[in-house]
Amino acid sequence: MAKYILKRVAFSFITLLIIASITFFLMKLMPGTPFTAQEKLTEVQIEILNEKYNLNDPVPVQYAKYIGNMLKGDLGVSFQFDNRNVTDLILDRIGPSAHLGLQTLIFGAIAGIIFGVIAALKQNTMWDYGSTFLAVLGKSIPNFVFAGMLQYFIGVKLGWFPVAFWEGPSYTVMPTIANAMFTLAVAARFMRTEMIEVLSSDYIVTAKAKGLSSAVVTIKHGLRNGLIPLVTVLGPLAAGLLTGSLVIERIFAIPGLGEQFVRSITTNDFPMIMGITLFYSVFLIFVILLVDILYGIIDPRIRLAGGNK
Amino acid sequence: MKSEEILSKQLFEPATIDPSKGEEITKPTLSYWQDAWLRIRKNVGAIIGIILLVTLIFFALVGPYMTPYDSFEQDLSRAKLPPKIPVLENISWLHLDGTIQFTKDQPRIDVYEQKGIEEYFWFGTDGLGRDLWTRTWEGTRISLFIALVAALIDMVIGVAYGGISAYYGGRVDNVMQRIVEILYGIPFLVVVILFMLILNPGILSIILAMTVVGWLGMSRVVRGQILKLKNQEFVLASKTLGAKDSKIIIKHLLPNITGVIIVNTMFTIPGAIFGEAFLSFIGLGLPAPMASLGTLIEDGFKSLQIFPHMILFPAIVISVIMIAFNLVADGLRDALDPKMRD
Amino acid sequence: MEKILEVKNMHVSFDTFGGEVQAVRGVDFDLNKGETLAIVGESGSGKSVTSKTIMRLIPTPPGRIKEGEILFGGKDLAKLSEKEMQKIRGKDISMIFQDPMTSLNPTMKVGKQIMEGLIKHQKLSSSAAKERAIELLGLVGIPQPEVRINQFPHQFSGGMRQRVVIAIALACNPKILLADEPTTALDVTIQAQIIELMKDLQKKMNTSIIFITHDLGVVANVADRVAVMYGGKIVEIGTVDEIFYNPQHPYTWGLLSSMPSLDAKEDELFAIPGSPPDLINPPKGDAFAVRNQFALKIDLEKEPPMFKVSNTHYAATWLLHENAPKVEPPPYIKRLKETKQLSKSGAKASDHK
After folding, report:
1. Partner of C9 for a Cys bridge, out of A280, A305, B244, C68, CB 3.0 to 4.6 A?
2. pTM above 0.90, yes or no
3. CB distance C105–A212 less than 8 Å?
4. C35-59+75-92+176-353: which CATH topology?
């Protein structure tokens, strides 16, 4: 198991290096530098700026410097915010994003699991159809449309929650709900199928034949086995949360990483774009790795298979 | 005992039984597709999805020609008009009568009357006075086009990549899968964003950006299926009889994965529609004055609080399209491969 | 003999999209204390549904008990509430299932799975339950029970898992054990071990067993009495000797003839033509008639009642009616009768020694 994890970590690291390289060269493919587009700057000033940000070096040298610095945790300096380190900027912005992401995941997953389990237990009843309908809506309605609806009806018309900004718990309610719809839908659909399969398996009949109460059978034997595979969708869910945060943070004016990313796109802030891309990739790769390891720990069948190797 | 006595002796003669009758097949044989169609017809969700899709596609094709306005025609004198639809204007709670209410305490104002406009703008107009009915349906057309082409390209690349990787296996598979794993490590929309930054904005570049990594999902599914199929006895039997690779692929493997391919493609379409809208939303979409559902929603967001109609209609259309595709895809999945239900 | 379970006129149906599937259509039998009753029949004959119904484990809906009584300890199980039934399941009546690979919870330690029932029914503390679980594992012949108890099902082989399933079933010393094809999924050598184990445990615990199977070889080995089911009904019931050596129903003949044996001639291995009846629209008259080469006209008209052959032997076939023509059973069956007489005289001969 330890050997397996080590191998996976090493591979993840190589993946990251490749991603960093791809991002770097893609940025180099872009016409001009961010300063050429700004009319206020004289040619001399542009030259000075290019020099300052090493943009006059040959590309391979720039690449070597970039990768070298990256390994030291230095992602360069933002063009947009003069002299500010990309790493610092990311760390500054990560708080609200992590807060929103975590809150979304917890709310979405728990609500999704509840809906999914109810649907599975009350298969082919109104509960089931209602939950399925909700899941289709959650999967279908784009999060920015849903966020707009919440903002307009709940925020503007009813005035229950603040329309934008990030200044306290009540400010987190609408962004969380808007962002969680997708998580909820995925978790509910997944949980429903898993639970139906688990509840129709032989060991559930065995448990019932022992005379255990329905609640014990459903929770101890059913839910536990149904929940384990849910770990596998955490990867796609995390990716979904990332993209979700880009639009949700923008709509609700949340000072998070996603909002920063969208802004650096519009201002051609290369180091920032590269930095956040890399950060997102690290996050995603980490989640995928974590899911693999976690799955091995939770499911005794896999745990042993790993140990035997 | 009495009832038994009534039984006549005649009844106790041996009966002639045709034993083959017991093995008669009573149900008609159905082909894979007939069976799938029967299942879909029973699926209420899928039927609703199909009806919604047909309706939306009809409007996307015909809608822009139903009004005399051009989608690019600007006229500031009729800017920001609320929607006004004949007949429906009489149903007061719908507020499709060209009136607008700026704050809660004020009465509704008839903007058409105020500006002296006789015509009807069914979905209202935008900030530049362009007719939103025309723009919404043209946007729908463009969004659908982008999504369909992207899904088709994803399908072709995904099937080829996954198929080759699985069929040839060994080192080929190993190398190809390492590449896939690396690509999987980058969030999908980040890749799309990076590519959009390099390419000049336009329909083609959106399609291109979305297909750069969009085929990954399909390739994974196809690879899994082929890996499973290629070791099954019927393929082995065909090989033993000396069939060529091309024949095995075309005759045995492809027919068995068509269902999976179709279902997967159906699920990529709503994904691509969302992708396009997402790009437009973060400012990387189609350049003005072209309209897609994403750019319309992005535009509408700017005046969400005062003129919600600008975002309302494109938002409804995109949601309904997504719902319809998901419903049809769900139905197809259940119909084509019951074992595949997520 | 003391009757421990009486099933009277039991009807069980499943409501499906295609219509009402009448899986069990009027089944009567008794189970005596300490005996083994085998229920045999092909797939779809209703034997599994019968056992699941006694345990009230048929999923409701779509399944439902339409009619009939299941009398056990002065109670009608068919009418008990789910709560009351939970007190009986695992305590008075237990069940062993067909596939040991799937009938254990894959993510729960084996010991815990045995302990659950003990804690629930015998109100044991968890340490006492653990001790008892170790004892039970030893009883069903699992070596090193104190180690095995902390393992997961996938660490056991198929035969060992079935032993665990038996340990779970026997945990609370049940009065009745329902064994639903307990050996079908196992290798032949393991089958014999499991059957020996069950016979052994039955002697120790004096449990009554209902043994459901389609394997007549197993039946001959374990059963005291045999009930043959076809199309949701019992068509013949009797002691194991009566069923094997003096079968009356043409379906039983068919079953016995299709059982390969070492001394049967090559051309005698026989297959019953056709397929089991459609239980959504059960045929009029005798359900077996269309597959029966000995069918009478009345078989297609009227359902045969149970005719008495002896005090313990009944069969539902019009061939036993006084008006029926004398029918020669197939040669293989005739030979069985002769074997019986031979073995009897043989037994006597050996007695004399």
Report:
1. C68
2. no
3. no
4. Rossmann fold (3.40.50)
